[in-house]
Amino acid sequence: MAEHISRVHAGNYGVYGVRKVWRRLHGEGIEVACCVVARLMRELGLDGARRGKTIRTTVRDDGHERAADQPGGSAPALRHDPARFADRRSARSTGPCGASTPGIQRRPSGDPTAGP
């Protein structure tokens, strides 16, 4: 099967990807699953042409010294205060059809218990 995949890929200037190689093989009467074509193309190092520029955002430098860990172990996890948000998360309001839907409770603008 690898010979057929290599032949079809090379016969089309090396620009055919998995889907086109798979369709071409089916057109020639060779029944094979698309996932098999993908696996064999990966193993053979074949890939299709990509449009545009391939973006690589990060290139790791193995020779660079890593930053030291926090003294005394890892930093404490930050989390919100559940008491501060409990009253608004459990509030329910009435939807457009009169049905009760989850929502945020509205408070008057001078209410000292209103959150930020």
Describe what this molecule looks like in 3D:
Residues 3-53 form the HTH-like domain. Residues 49-116 are annotated as: Disordered. Residues 58-68, 78-90 have a biased composition (Basic and acidic residues). It holds the Pfam family HTH_21. This protein is mainly α and 116 residues long. The chain has a domain at 2-44. Helix content is 34%, strand content 5%. It contains four helices and two strands; from the N terminus they run ααααββ. It has a two-stranded antiparallel ribbon with strand order 1-2. A hairpin with a 5-residue loop joins β1 and β2 (100-102). The longest helix is centred in the middle third of the chain and has 11 residues, at 34-44. The chain is elongated. The chain starts with a helix and ends in a 14-residue tail after the last strand.
Tally the helices: what do you get? Answer: 4
Order of strands across the widest beta sheet?
1-2
* H and E string: HHHHEE
Parts with pLDDT < 50 across at least 5 consecutive residues: none
Largest sheet: 2 strands, antiparallel
Domain HTH-like: 3-53
Protein name: HTH-like domain-containing protein
Biased composition (Basic and acidic residues): 58-68, 78-90
InterPro entries: HTH-like_dom
